[in-house]
Amino acid sequence: MNSLNADITKQMKKRLLDEKEKLLQTLSSLKAQDPFANTDRLNDNAASDTEAKEETDHERYEAIISQQRKRMSEIELALKRIEDTTYGICLNCGKPIEQKRLLVNPAAVYCLTCEKNLEK
């Protein structure tokens, strides 16, 4: 059962949906900027230093995209938990997640105590 009032839950849902939209835009932009997205790249005769730079840039974009996808998964889980009325409940101990914590990170799934214990 959700321990948050309906207004707070609604506010968190809006923030999560807004962040999800921004992440989708960011992911699209990052994919377009990735040098490996250019199919002509395979047919060019670029110098080896250009190839090395493209490889490095590609790896950097892949790392950023991976982080963005991880955050997207966290957001989608939070939205699912809102729908099934378990939002705001710690996945570890079952106690309410502090409202202040959710205001900082609406996708939080652990209370502060459990988060600290899991990080050890």
TrEMBL record:
Q: Which UniProt keywords apply?
A: Metal-binding, Zinc, Zinc-finger
Query: dksA C4-type zinc fingers: which residues?
Result: 90-114
The family database entries (SUPFAM superfamilies) matched by this protein are listed as: DnaK suppressor protein DksA, alpha-hairpin domain (SSF109635), Glucocorticoid receptor-like (DNA-binding domain) (SSF57716)
State one Pfam family annotation. zf-dskA_traR
Q: Does the keyword Metal-binding apply?
A: yes
What would you give as a GO molecular function for this chain, any one?
zinc ion binding
Which residue ranges does the record annotate as region Disordered? 35-59
What is this protein's record name?
Answer: Zinc finger DksA/TraR C4-type domain-containing protein
